[in-house]
Every structure is written in structure tokens, then in C-alpha cells.
Amino acid sequence: MQVLSAVLTLLNILLIVGPIAGVIVIHSSNPIEIVIPEEVQEATQESMESIESTFESLELVDYKYDLDARMLTLTFSITNYLDIDITLNALETDVQCARDGYPLGHISLNNKVTIDSGRSAYISSSFKWSVQAEEHVKMVHAGETGIDIDFVNITFDVNGIVVQTPEHVTLTNIPLPG
Amino acid sequence: MKARAVNWFGLAGGIVTILLIIVSINTPWWRLTIGNGVFRVDASPININLNLIGNVFTIPLIWAFNLASILLLAASGVALMVYSLYPSKSYSKSLLSFGYKKPFYAVVLFTVALAALTFIAKSILSVDLPFYGSSSVKISFGGQEANIEMLTFAEFVWPFWLGIVAAGLCIAARLYHRKLET
Lengths: 178, 182
Known about the structure:
The complex is a heterodimer.
Chain A: H1 2-26, H2 38-56, E1 59-66, E2 71-79, E3 86-97, E4 103-109, E5 113-115, E6 120-129, H3 131-140, E7 146-158, E8 161-165, E9 169-175
Chain B: H1 8-26, E1 30-34, E2 39-43, E3 48-52, E4 55-57, H2 60-85, H3 92-99, H4 101-123, E5 133-141, E6 146-156, H5 158-181
Antiparallel strand pairs in B: 1-2, 1-6, 2-3, 3-4, 5-6
């Protein structure tokens, strides 16, 4: 009886200490890996690079003016370099003239878009400009065929994660209607 | 002929404990999802997986604790089954004593650890991780004035309830043992 109790107590200790001691011995050359393994650091780095590549792949592929409605429909292509499918649920941003910061209007996403991992998709968004913006373009950018614009106060919702960023994105040479 | 006494609660508790280990290898007890699949934590005393944007990884120290839990629960289940079939043997009380507490401890320690994790996240890091249900986690990057708001959802998965059943059966086995002794 006492022998069995002692054996079971010893077994308790061995079953707890054994795996922990084993992990410590295996990672004795680099103890920090016991808590933060190299694969976590690599995965984080890879994910950041994939996010960056995905944003960098954003490219304006088509635009359509509706002068009566003072509306410009912009179509972008984007490639998802992440290992998961992403859904762009919302995108809102103010638009400014890149030359002098004059407020031109607002852009919003037309429909939510799901982009499968490793695939490309089109994002359609609408830019509604103001009467004042129209005057600004006529006065300041008279005779120009294109305009550089800044996206500011950018808010987007990807997979339920809403990001508001003070970063601004510049699009160059957006064609002006003739 | 008198039928041999069997502690049925202990036998059921031992079987459910072994079953719990098997199902918990692939199914978590608790799942935390941040964003739609952007970050996911699948946790149980048996297995903890972290999934960051499709990359699954394991932390060695946590893996060691998981392995210790598997071995302890397996030993507990076997000890309970052997005890239950021979509850009147001289060694039976040692086996019962060794086996019946572990599933209970696993459930209680796991729940306390989760509660502590969510409490620490809220009080120290100001991140409102839900213990159960959904919440909106907001993180501000003061220097750059950027804000990130994440839809977060936590749920207990069915093996957690199976763990409670196993713990309950094991405690019932201990109580029933007193009846067998009289």
C-alpha cells in the first residue's frame, strides 16, 4: 500500500517535471525559444511582409466619370499575398488635392469584396466630389489632364478588423474629365 | 453467488477521461477568434494552438504543460478504471486517490487560467478580451494616432463540458467509494 502510494506520488512528479525538463534541455542553447520560438518570429515577419505586399499590389485599373452626379467610380485590382482569405468589408477615406491639401470629396467602397488567398480581385469604389472641389480643379488645375490626390483619414474593415490610420496614400495622375 | 462490487462512477469517469484526451487533441475546450480568422487561439489543457494569419505555431513551454496534462490525465483514467473494477482490493484506495482529482483539477485550473488571462489583458494591457461571448478590442498606437478595432469572439467548445462531466463522475466515484466501504 505504502509502496504503491509512493510510486504514484513519484509518477505524479515525473509526469509533470519530465516534459518541462525535456523542453528546457532541448532548448538549452537558446532558452528564449522555450517561450518565443523562432517560428513565431518568422511567422510574424512573413505576415507583415505579406500584408505589405498585398497593399503594394493595389493598382488603379479603370475609372468612370458621371459628371451629372459628380461621381467618379474607381476600380482597383489587388492581390492577396496572405495565407488566409480576406474580406474587405468597408473602406472610407477623404480625398485631398495632393498639391495644396484642398478637400475634394470622399471615397467609399461600393460592395464588400472577398479575395481568396493567393488570388487577385477587383475593388470598386465611388468618389463623390463637391461643388467647391469642381471649382478648385477648374481654377487651380486648369488645362491639366490629370491630378494627384491624397487619401487621408483612411478607415478600412478587413475581416472584422477596423483600422483607422493617419497615414496618407497618394494616387498620381488621376485623369480629369475632358 | 454474490456479484463482485464495481464502482460504476469510477469506471465511467475513467473511460470519459480517456475519451476526453482523445477528442481534445483535435477539438479545443475554448476558442478565441480575433477578426474573421486573422488570429485564433484554440486552447485546452491537452493542446494549445495559436493561429496568426494562417500560420499555426506552438510554444514549447506550453507544449510541455500540455504533454504533462495528457500523461497525468491518461494515468488518472487508467488508475480509475483499474480501481473501479477492484474497489475492495488493498491497493484500490491509493489508485482512487491518485486518479479522481486530476480531471477536476484540469477543469478548474484551465478555467482559472482563462479568467486570469482575460483579467490581466484587461487590467494591465487595457485589452478587453472576452472570457465568453463577443467584444470589440480597441488598440491605439499613441505616437501615430492609429486605431485598430477588432471584433473578438470567445466560446467554450463541447469537450470543455465533457471535461466537467468527467470531473463530476470522478468526484461521484470518490463519494460512492464510501458507500462501497460500508
